[in-house]
């Protein structure tokens, strides 16, 4: 059978031969075209496989110990930092309390001493009655004009008896002081209800007298 070549096919063959003659073929690659060999290595014998298995077990155990050690170290670091934070917080808390106390003390100023308190109390205490108002020898009470009213007679008699007893004993007992204070409070209450019936000066003098009389009940006779 006779094969007939067309002019186009003949021309293509000629061009390919010319190109092949001008450009030599590419050299083989210096390294494999893939990153890893297509087949992994495997033990050639049973003994080698067993030894490689034991080696992998030992290597895995060592890696596990290393990771456990790192984990324990990280845990201890975190625990130490937690304790440090708690200590820091406690220190700052007490420092803030101390600063607060210092600031409040500075605002209040100097605290009074016991001597200061005694002096302040003595300054606020009413004046003691003069011997002409309360006789220290007999306990006789020289009542102001407003307090000589018959409305105050029962309480006046109780007070005169108490101060007469004080002139003998030198002082009143706690029970006697309570009785005297109650009687003076009743007189003060009655006097206050009638405040509009008196002049301001007479009312003030009577109130001051009652305050001094109540203070005398807590003091020894002179």
Care to describe what's here?
With 222 residues, the chain is mostly helical. Among the domains are: 52-111; 128-217. 65% of the residues lie in helices and 0% in strands. The protein contains six helices and no strands. The chain has helices at 7-22, 46-108, 114-124, 153-169, 174-193, 200-217. Helix 5 runs antiparallel to helix 6 (200-217). The longest helix is centred in the middle third of the chain and has 63 residues, at 46-108. It is rod-shaped and about 135 Å long. The protein starts with 6 loop residues before the first helix and ends in a 5-residue tail after the last helix.
Portion in strands: under 5%
Q: Low-confidence parts lasting 5 or more residues at pLDDT below 50?
A: 18-23
How many runs of DSSP E, i.e. beta strands?
Answer: 0
For the biggest sheet, the summary is: none
The shape is: rod-shaped
Span of the ends, CA to CA: 168 Å
Rounded average pLDDT: 80
- Supply the number of helical segments: 6
> What class would the helix/strand composition place it in?
mainly alpha
Order of helices and strands: HHHHHH
Please give the radius of gyration in angstroms. 58 Å
Give the helix proportion (percent range). Answer: 55-70%
């Amino acid at each position: 059978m006779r094969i007939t070549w067309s002019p186009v096919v003949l021309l293509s063959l000629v061009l390919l031969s010319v190109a092949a003659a001008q450009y030599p073929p590419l050299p083989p690659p210096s390294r494999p075209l893939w990153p890893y060999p297509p087949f992994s290595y495997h033990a050639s014998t049973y003994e080698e496989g067993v030894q490689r298995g034991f080696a992998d077990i030992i290597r895995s155990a060592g890696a596990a110990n290393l990771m456990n050690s790192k984990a324990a170290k990280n845990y201890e670091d975190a625990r130490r930092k937690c304790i440090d934070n708690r200590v820091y917080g406690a220190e700052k808390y007490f420092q803030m309390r101390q600063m607060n106390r210092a600031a409040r003390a500075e605002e209040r100023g100097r605290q009074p001493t016991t001597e200061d308190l005694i002096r302040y109390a003595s300054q606020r205490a009413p004046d003691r009655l003069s011997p002409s108002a309360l006789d220290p020898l007999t306990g006789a009470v020289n009542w102001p004009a407003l307090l000589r009213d018959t409305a105050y007679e029962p309480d006046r008699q109780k007070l005169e008896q108490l101060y007469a007893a004080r002139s003998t004993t030198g002082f009143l007992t706690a029970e006697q002081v309570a009785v005297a204070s109650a009687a003076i409070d009743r007189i003060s209450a009655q006097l206050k209800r009638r405040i509009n019936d008196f002049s301001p000066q007479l009312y003030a003098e009577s109130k001051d007298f009652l305050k001094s009389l109540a203070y005398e009940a807590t003091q020894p006779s002179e």
